[in-house]
């Protein structure tokens, strides 16, 4: 582990331990989590690609590791994975920019 990092890759394997301090809530979360990622209207591969994109948007290194692996295991290729990351980047960038409208409205309010 890099001593300059808050993130320890080994902690990813401890994710299941979050139930230790609150077993009932942990069980409910993992039940829900498991249901969400089951095949449904979206394939498991599509859900993994969405999760990978969201992982980048929320900047969770544990999730990026987990869903990079999951995507490959579910048949996604490198191009699909990088395209999903670009979708996340475009949405995150667009979300930041669209809030510029709020700033412009405030400027108009203060300067008129």
Please write out the topology.
Elements: H1 23-36, H2 44-57, H3 61-73, H4 78-98, H5 100-111
Helix pairs in contact: 2-3, 2-4
- Name the structural class: mainly alpha
Percent helix, as a range, is 55-70%
Share in β-strands: under 5%
**End-to-end C-alpha gap:** 55 Å
On the 0 to 100 scale, the average pLDDT is 94
Quaternary form: single chain
Global shape: extended
What this model shows, in words?
Helix 2 runs antiparallel to helix 3 (61-73) and helix 2 crosses helix 4 (78-98). The longest helix is centred in the C-terminal third of the chain and has 21 residues, at 78-98. By secondary structure, this protein is mostly helical. The radius of gyration is 19 Å and the shape is extended. The protein is 66% helix and 0% strand. The protein has helices at 23-36, 44-57, 61-73, 78-98, 100-111.
Quick take:
The chain is mostly helical. Helix content is 66%, strand content 0%.
Labels describing this entry:
112 residues, mainly alpha, extended
């Amino acid at each position: 582990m890099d001593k300059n990092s808050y993130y320890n890759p080994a902690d990813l394997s401890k994710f299941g331990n979050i139930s230790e301090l609150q077993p009932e809530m942990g069980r409910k979360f993992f039940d829900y989590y498991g249901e969400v990622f089951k095949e449904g209207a979206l394939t498991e591969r599509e859900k993994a690609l969405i999760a990978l994109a969201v992982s980048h948007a929320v900047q969770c290194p544990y999730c990026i590791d987990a869903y990079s692996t999951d995507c490959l295991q579910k048949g996604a290729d490198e191009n699909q994975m990088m395209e999903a990351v670009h979708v996340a980047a475009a949405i995150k960038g667009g979300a930041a920019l669209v809030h510029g409208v709020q700033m412009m409205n405030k400027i108009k309010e203060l300067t008129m």
